[in-house]
Amino acid sequence: MTMIRTRLAQLLRPRRLRRTETMRALVREHRVEIAQLVQPLFIVENPSDAGPITSMPGVSRHTITTAVQEAGVLEALGVRSVLLFGIPETKDAVASSNYDPNGIVQQAARAIKTAFPHMLVVADLCNCEYTDHGHCGIIDEQGYVDNDATVEILVRTALTYARAGVDVIAPSDMMDGRVKAIREALDADGFEQVAIMAYSAKYASAFYGPFREAADSAPQFGDRRSYQMDAPNAREAMREIAIDVDEGADIVMVKPGMPYLDIVRAARDRFDVPIAVYNVSGEYSMIKAAARNGWIDEDRAVDELLVGFVRAGADVIITYFAKDYAARHGAQ
Predict the structure, then answer these.
(1) Given the residues 113, 255, 288, 323, the one annotated as active site
(2) pLDDT tens digits for 181-212?
(3) Cα–Cα distances in Å, from 4 out to 8, 9, 35?
(4) What pLDDT is attached to residue 200?
(5) Segment holding 267, helix H or strand E
(6) How far is Cα of residue 310 from the mean position of the Cα atoms in its chain?
(7) What pLDDT is attached to residue 93?
């Protein structure tokens, strides 16, 4: 025993720094800051469409009034950034309700900025919630999404968002060239200070399932794999991000989060711009379902999940857990 203890005395002992919670906190390498969290909000034009989302326990569709109330709760908790998704009352083939100056997102942005001027309002820019076919763009005669015609609609919509007081435009459509077109249009209209957070590496993913219910945006035919990225591709993600940075994106995003942490890390190592990650609906609902069945500790799982995004290199975390996380950690 004496010989064993003599040998052990010569060992390095990293466990010394894990002995107590205070010690662990002192030497902790990465931390999740509430200020870097963004809470998505779904806002409906028809009040009868508001209410809990079945596949996303704890998340609801809001009217403009309740969205403003929710923004107030978030601000009090320290979550001062929201990402708006609109669910219009009417849809058509060309997403005309999306670029309506009095559309649901435009109204909600004005209301939130009026009530809470310091709240950062980010508007998701896509057409899938506004088209009757559920695709992210204009469908051509062959049944494909027309890239350039779609970009024209995106630009038109982005300008209405900026005029409504949106701070950050977040194009999520994955059309080629849309960042450059939006940046040029915003600058020409006097909105040089409106930022662009591009969904740069957005993968065609099974993890978006619950969002389809939340936003009423499921494609009526086919799928989105002709414009969203193929899951096995990593080098392509770097190319997409590089293009968006060159075209003027202020922040670039990887979506989804959990299965694509390697992409977040690669982007962080290569690009000197803020990196966002979207902790998407399927990831959220899996944790909720497992926790409800008693299979995991939800709070610990969420803490581990979010710090994993930070450790991978994310600066901005879009997550449906933002409110609950802030409520648990805000007083610390």
Answers:
(1) 255
(2) 999 999 999 999 999 999 999 999 999 888 77
(3) 6, 9, 49
(4) 97
(5) helix 261-270
(6) 15
(7) 78
User: What gap in Å lies between CA 82 and CA 41, rounded to an integer?
Assistant: 7
List the catalytic residue out of 91, 113, 202, 323: 202
Q: Could you read off the pLDDT of 228-258 as tens digits, one per residue?
A: 899 999 999 999 999 999 999 999 999 999 9
DSSP state of 200: E
* Cα-to-chain-centroid distance, residue 294: 28
β partners of residue 92? 131
Distance CA 134, CA 155 (A): 19
Residue 145 to residues 126, 156, 243, Cα–Cα distance (Å): 13, 17, 20
What pLDDT is recorded for position 332?
A: 47
H or E segment and range at residue 85 = strand 81-87
Catalytic residue at 255?
Answer: yes
Query: Which residues contact residue 92 at a Cβ distance below 8 angstroms, ignoring those fewer than 6 apart?
Result: 130, 131, 132
Domains present along the chain, CATH in parentheses: 30-329 (3.20.20.70)
Could you tell me which residues are beta bridge partners of residue 60?
A: 52
Query: Both tokens of residue 320?
Result: 């449906």
Say which DSSP state 160 is in.
Answer: H
pTM above 0.90, yes or no: yes
Does residue 180 carry a catalytic annotation?
Answer: no
Closest CA to 221 of 291, 285, 134: 134
Q: For the chain, what is the mean pLDDT?
A: 92
Q: Give the number of other Cβ atoms within 10 Å of residue 325's Cβ.
A: 22
The CA-CA-CA angle for residues 155, 135, 140, to 5°, reads 80
Judge residue 293's burial from the number of C-beta atoms within 10 Å of its C-beta, 0-12 exposed, 13-18 middle, 19 or more buried: exposed
